[in-house]
Amino acid sequence: FDSMGDMVAAFDRGLRLVRLNRAGTERLGQPSEALAGRPAAQLLGPRIGAWLAVVETRDDTCRTMADEWF
To answer: What are the pLDDT digits (tens) for 11-33?
Structure first.
């Protein structure tokens, strides 16, 4: 998890941050403990936060939603 060079984040069903790897803490400039519980939209931006919320409520694949949003 922490050995990955890309940011990896785990969110709960309410889209609040549960865990963030080292690359994510470096990118966001704060330790994961300080970021825990924050909403995805606050950490990743409103566009990605909205996309995650839509994906969470759909049965379609994430790839289909990504094609619509990006």
So the answer is: 888 889 999 999 999 998 999 88
Distance CA 30, CA 32 (A): 6
Residue type, 52: L
Residues contacting 4, CB < 8 A, separation 6+: 21, 23
How far is Cα 51 from Cα 47, in angstroms, rounded to an integer?
A: 6
- Beta partners for residue 17, in sequence order: 11
The HSE-up count of residue 59 (CA atoms within 13 Å, CB side) is 0
CB 41 within 8 A of CB 50: yes
The one-character DSSP state at 7 is -
Higher pLDDT, 41 or 56: 41
